[in-house]
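Today's session is about reading a structure prediction critically. Students often jump straight to the picture, but the first step is always the sequence itself: look for stretches that repeat, for charged clusters, for runs of hydrophobic residues. Only then move on to the predicted structure, which in these notes is written as discrete structure tokens rather than atom positions. Here is the chain we will use throughout the hour.
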Amino acid sequence: MNFNKAEFFTSYGSFKQIPPSERTEIAFSGRSNVGKSSLINKIFNRKALARVSAVPGKTATINFYTLENLCFVDLPGYGYAKVAKSEKERWAGLIEGYLGDDRELALVFQLVDFRHPPTADDILMINFLIDNGIPFVVVLTKADKLSKKQRGERRAALMNELPCAEDITVIEFSAQTGEGVEDIRAIIEEIAADDEDNE
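Below is the predicted structure for this chain, in token form.
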């Protein structure tokens, strides 16, 4: 799979605009400023496929990218306090609408900032994925910001912080060093191969 060939496809600001799935989808979910755009750019080896913003809550649309037989879906970042209530409700509607819809969703990469305990919104999202039987992998972002000792401490703490922690696949990731990128790509390639087998 040539990851460099991913292309921006389209974006939607309301759930009603989103057409039904035409291909297998992989979604990226996480709170504002957790590093979703940086992760997407790193996976696809591109500087600006996903727009990286210093302003949290900038991605207020669902963005779709395509690569071969797959569609990649960048969900709006949740949990940013400084936006109007109506905006928050629109984002929630987008995220819940998308995840609750009958789509060809193979996997969600759920991003959590490795440096801190998962937020209440992170836990809510993970429970939502578990309750709805949506397969997901937790990606711990900003891994390069922690020392070896801090990582060990956070790893141990996560076993108590994440629901069903012992059953969750966790990948430690850094957009700076590229750590974890190959693990994420391997999962994507596996989904793409399964998709082809099922056609």
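Discussion point for the tutorial: The two ends are 17 Å apart (CA to CA).
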